[in-house]
Design a protein that fits this description.
The protein is α+β, with helices and mostly antiparallel strands. The chain has a single domain, classed as Alpha-Beta Plaits (2-Layer Sandwich). It contains two helices and four strands. A four-stranded antiparallel β-sheet has the order 2-3-1-4, with helices on one face. The protein is globular and about 45 Å long.
Length: 98
């Protein structure tokens, strides 16, 4: 069965505090998860480090933002969010249709 693919833009806030992984290694892991949910990464934009408007953790007041454009089936965004929910290197995940 060949599912129709849609285009998405995912924004990730990455956190490598206390870890030996670099942001590129964390991003490679996120790309692997996108591939696991049958997604194809088309573009990656590194936005850079930005301060949070609302701080939920006093120890983390800013984060590295990355936007990843990809195409995937309609069920992929929910699967992607669920798989990255337990990954402590990805602080936040926001997926929207592009």
């Amino acid at each position: 069965m060949n599912a129709t693919k849609r285009n998405y833009r995912a924004t990730f806030i990455l956190d490598n505090r206390g870890k030996e992984d670099t942001f590129d290694q964390i991003l490679d892991g996120v790309k692997k998860v996108i591939a696991e949910v049958q997604g194809e990464v088309t573009t990656v934009e590194t936005v850079g480090k930005k301060d949070f408007v609302r701080v939920t953790d006093k120890k983390l007041t800013s984060g590295h933002y990355v936007q990843v454009y990809f195409s995937a089936p309609a069920a992929a965004p929910a699967q992607l969010i669920e798989r990255l929910r337990l990954n402590d290197s990805v602080y936040r995940t926001f997926v929207q249709a592009a």
